[in-house]
Amino acid sequence: MSNQDIRPDKYNELRSVNKNYIDSYAALYQLKTENEEDLSSIYKMIKTELIDSKKCRPAYLVKDILDIIPYNNRYTKSYLKLAKFIIDDFHVTTVLDIPTLSVYLFDEEYGIKLGKTEETKQLLKPFLENPIFRAIMNNNIEAFIAITEREGFDKDQELHSYLYPPNTRGYSLLELCCYHGAVDCFKFLRTKFNSRVTDTCLELSFLGGNPEIMSECLKHTEPYFNCMKYAIISHNIDFVTFLVNEYNIEIDLYDCINHKNLESFL
């Protein structure tokens, strides 16, 4: 049942009943901190509201947390730390069906093997070794401009990495700016190189959440179902209702289930 088919009073009642569950997963998907105290506070909340309340088993919550990384990878270490808290406190020894990326990252960070890592390290090398991607991640415009002025800079380069959502091709620099909400780097690429706004730019802007970037993307392309997918993943109900009301895009209930967005599901 989507929120366009339900009475507002009933929706508000259901949301109120499930508020703690909704807020807990929103805190995970919208995580924007590396601060130890903040992470401890988030952990206490999810432990109380999800594990202690029997709404989610510890191993399942570890998987849920690690699955978020490709959609908010700037805070990879924070997600790994939250997963480690659960593994330590609840003596989790087996986590099924987690991505190879998460297995590799957890092993690198804590020396704990949750599965086989295969050749993940090789696929992360372009991201780890090229400073331009880190500059975009942090919206460091000074470093970004300096890199673009170096001899041999390729404005059309693309990144292929497990750290980002699955894609049949690599991501352009402008698309990475949209993903990270790196508005200063985005504006520079548009002004200096006239970098093309793609459908993927608009999709990823719903993850990055920067209103200036989203507004610019909407001038060049119209939202479609993939935008709704990323709006759901963002756990930003305003994005979801915007796409429903302005573009009549349906809410995919399977995406709501897969990404634990109960608020949009209601």
From TrEMBL:
Please indicate which superkingdom the organism of origin belongs to: Eukaryota
Return the PANTHER family for the record.
ANKYRIN REPEAT AND SOCS BOX CONTAINING 4, LD18443P
* Name of the protein in its database record: DUF3447 domain-containing protein
Q: Which organism is it from?
A: Trichomonas vaginalis (strain ATCC PRA-98 / G3)
List residues of the DUF3447 domain. Answer: 193-266
Stored InterPro entries: Ankyrin_rpt-contain_sf (IPR036770), DUF3447 (IPR020683)
Q: Name one matching Pfam family.
A: DUF3447
Q: Where are the transmembrane segments?
A: none
